[in-house]
Amino acid sequence: MQTSTSLALSEFEHDVLNGLQKNPKSLSSKYFYDDEGSRLFQRIMHLPEYYLTRSELEIFTKHKEAMLSLFNSDQEGFELIELGAGDGLKTKVLLSHFSERNVPFTYIPIDISEKALDELTANLSREIPDLAMQPVNDDYFKALNGQMTYSQYTKRIVFFLGSNIGNFSEERSLQFLNQLKNCLNPGDMIMIGFDLQKNPFTILSAYNDTQGITRDFNMNLLDRMNRELGADFRTDRFVHYPIYDPATGEARSYLVSLLKQQVYLEKLDEWVYFEEGEAVHTETSRKYTLSQMKQLCTQAGLKPIHYFTDSKHYFADMLLKV
Ligand code: AVJ
């Protein structure tokens, strides 16, 4: 019998081989998040240059009351579902507020990482003892599509925060929103966090911090292949190279080979060849204008109800109705 870990591993193996044998080379940013990568991302969220988390936290702090009246306009309570909850830092602001107000609701964090989910629920039950919570350790759509009911509430509000949508291509984000819409009922709501286009130097710095944490985060992909695939990547033979293109709104990160070299992937018994200066694309983080945001959402057949932004207009959370 194949276990879920060996399945996941073979998908990783397959994607690595595919990505490194094509031209230009690429690896999916979803592979950043092993335990080490998740730890590094937690550190990124606290970096002075990484304004995204702080901006969204400001939005939630400033607009928690307005959000509550939109979520609970019928006073009937709701399910608050969060896709990829992470450490829940931003959501916690809302959860405590709703809890203080005795709002009838259940929090349903959905995450593929059991470790992240365990830490989140332990932390929340300590800090908000009254919180009704129903964590789900699964793939987003599997969790949403199952005929399962997680609470007594019929109305669902789904959060997809932190500019996670920015990692998707335009086509993929449209598909994602459509898929999400099809899991929900008319009247349900979705809140999406978008990073906004702004001074390109501000954006570039967020992916090129002076402490080198984002570099380590990117390089962890090489370490992960060493750990899991028995590869012999030397991180000193690559450079972390982030760029921001204000014409497309895309921040992209690369790992660039500093010399002509070959790398052996023991587990796959395969060699990969790099030219001097050859790039591996590892991540795209798309930044939006307000009109692009609205266009994407309406194209997906969702109705923009309200958007919330921070004092610097760096970030926006868009509330949509199905
Ligand atoms: C978690 C996908 C929102 O794109 O800004 C942070 C990941 N990459 N620094 C982002 C990330 C480099 C982050 N997201």
TrEMBL record:
GO terms for molecular function: L-histidine N(alpha)-methyltransferase activity. InterPro entries: EgtD (IPR035094), EgtD_Methyltrsf_superfamily (IPR051128), MeTrfase_dom (IPR019257), MeTrfase_EgtD-like (IPR017804), SAM-dependent_MTases_sf (IPR029063). Keywords: Methyltransferase, Transferase. Residues 12-321 form the Histidine-specific methyltransferase SAM-dependent domain. GO terms for biological process: methylation. Its EC number is 2.1.1.44. It comes from the Bacteria. This is L-histidine N(Alpha)-methyltransferase. It comes from Xanthocytophaga flava.
